[in-house]
């Protein structure tokens, strides 16, 4: 399957192909219905005219990007995401811009946002949660092999493809790194202890977030939720992990969560072991697609 970036690249000489993304313009697309809006702009369903490929076109306003000083972050996001190729990572095919806007050409995730599904169901059954967690563990393994740490895994950043496959969609906080990082970022509920303490962190931060996500999938709320931010921080630092009686969750699932939510980052269950954990083996659909 090839969107026109790839088709164009094949048609052009190699030197021109290097700049393939820069040659897109709005007139290359038929614009369809709005898919949603974010902080910095709108997302539309669109079709690339030459290839007929359906995509999601994200339109960002330069003034808003400048005001919020996120141009650097966006550039990093585009640079990282455009090089990734994995079934559980949303493709970024290319980008272009005009005087007032930046356009991102994204893979279309037909089933929309995962957190809406979670809100609808309140919590997922174990087969569904395990299928998503296994897919995400595979996607994170791939990212880490490319020295990319995501740092912001949470339901709001996950989309669902046509077949029901989960896709990591937002790379705003990701970093390409060979070193250990010391930057403070991410959303409170999913912050690992070493990031709360602003100390050095590495790819193991994503294992922590996967543990938080697994808990939220199964219980419908994140594990360290509290009314005050300071209390959430305190609960994270203590790893104040409690499993409610309802909904009923298997002890193997709780075992996996407990092995991912470990304060010492180096002691968290490695992603390869997550995939071998009995709860994943027994519950995850190997196809990565949850069928209700
Ligand atoms: N590739 C996509 N396929 C399908 N729907 C999408 C896609 N990208 C975005 N959307 C929809 O458009 C909405 C807005 O997306 P966008 O990424 O701009 O904002 P956001 O991630 O929700 O918020 P923020 O601006 O805080 O990052 C999403 O919530 C989703 O419903």
Instruction: State the secondary-structure class.
Output: alpha+beta
CATH architecture of the largest domain: Orthogonal Bundle
Number of separate strands? 9
Mean of the pLDDT scores? 87
CATH class of the largest domain: Mainly Alpha
Under CATH, the homologous superfamily of the largest domain reads Transferase(Phosphotransferase) domain 1
Strand content: 15-25%
Keywords: ATP-binding, Kinase, Nucleotide-binding, Serine/threonine-protein kinase, Transferase
Protein name: Aurora kinase
Pfam family, one: Pkinase
EC number: 2.7.11.1
Features:
292 residues; two-stranded antiparallel sheet; 2 domains; protein serine/threonine kinase activity; Protein_kinase_ATP_BS; binds adenosine-5'-triphosphate; five-stranded antiparallel beta sheet; Phosphorylase Kinase, domain 1; globular; Transferase(Phosphotransferase), domain 1; alpha+beta
Overview of the molecule:
The protein is of the alpha+beta class. The protein has 2 domains: 11-107, Phosphorylase Kinase, domain 1, CATH 3.30.200.20; 114-283, Transferase(Phosphotransferase) domain 1 (Transferase(Phosphotransferase), domain 1), CATH 1.10.510. 37% of the residues lie in helices and 16% in strands. The protein has helices spanning 4-11, 14-17, 62-67, 71-81, 114-121, 126-145, 193-196, 205-219, 229-238, 251-260, 271-276, 278-283, and strands at 29-37, 41-48, 54-61, 92-97, 101-107, 148-149, 158-160, 166-168, 175-176. The strands form 3 sheets. Strands 1-2-3-5-4 form a 5-stranded antiparallel beta sheet. It has a two-stranded antiparallel ribbon with strand order 6-9. It has a two-stranded antiparallel ribbon with strand order 7-8. Helix 8 packs antiparallel against helix 10. The structure holds adenosine-5'-triphosphate. Residues 35-40, 43, 56, 58, 90, 106-109, 112-113, 159, 170 line the site of adenosine-5'-triphosphate (ATP). One of its GO terms (molecular function) is protein serine/threonine kinase activity. It is an enzyme of class 2 (transferase). Residues 29-280 form the Protein kinase domain. It holds the Pfam family Pkinase.
